[in-house]
Write a structure and sequence with these properties.
Largest sheet: 6 strands, mixed
Number of helices: 10
Structural class: alpha+beta
Strand content: 15-25%
Strand order of the largest sheet: 13-12-11-14-10-15
Amino acid sequence: MTVTGPQGFRAAGVAAGIKASGALDLTLVVNDGPLDVAAGVFTRNVIKAAPVLWSQEVLKQQRLKAVVLNSGGANAATGPGGFQDTHATAEKVAEVLQVGAIEVAVCSTGLIGERLPMAAVLSGVDAAVKALDASAEASLNAAEGVMTTDSKPKQALAEHESGWSVGGFAKGAGMLAPNLATMLSVLTTDAVVDKGTLDRALRAATHVTFDRLDVDGGTSTNDTVLVLASGASGVEPTEAELTEVLTAVSHDLVLQLRADSEGATKDVDVTVRGADTEADAIAVARTIAEDNLVKTALFGSDPNWGRIAMALGRVPARIDPDAVSIAINGVTLFAQGVPAADRSEADLTGRAVEIVVDLGVGTSTATIYTTDLSHGYVEENSAYSS
């Protein structure tokens, strides 16, 4: 069990008829308490989907009884009508669960620019409520109900030795450069926690996990990460303990998202060390991770450090060309302004690739999790609307 692994939660995933394929497309996660504390982080894209606008508003009170999510349509760039659809969805969930609409978050994912088939959504809510359960099957169905181009569900669970846990699911295979948090992810915990602690712990966790995933530079209109706390374990962890476990679960989900991203044949860690500031380290690592020439070289298993040097050299960060070193899979290929080894010494035949850049001007470090750019990615994203 994952999202229902922590005590106090039930979930469901049903086929509401939003997707023409008949696949699972509506998910419901319910917090049975006794606490209903929640926190969230959302996309920084200016074009925010209606469910993001709704959920941002309801999260101001940091209380949630339920989250309803649909795949098969993003409900983004749909104007006032799209917002009314989100409101109607929350009202429907509230009515059936006998809670307030302001206690219901809404998330959507799919094609941008089209209204949702509301008859299917609303009847799907009824079906989901009837299917609510705390079983492993319910957790799996919930994770599958938010999938779009994902080939598999992404779930994670971590249990703390003192008797509380964090679980959750995430979806995403393309348009992955969250710049906040992630595509869609719901995390749950049965820890006893106050609003401020939960909010700080979530933001600290996403800053080094979901924020560091960058497959293609695309920051979605719908990116949302929510965490719900039931308090059902009766155990109150420290903020440091909560942050550590939230980070572990989030990191697990990020690696699953990367591994299942569209067309990926390489799992690439880009680590920048010796930066003047963390912001510089992130900027350099992200620029390398997003560079198409770097990504295509990795697809060809070519340790072309010159492309990496080109990419990092165009970042407005503190960079001394004579202090930079570049290593690929443990082999230093460039250092002190000159080649340090023949590029053939770096073996890229496997799926895992580690690029380590040391700027040599400070003490800050950051890692961005990315992939290569393959024929499969181009073919998939040119063959359908997304």
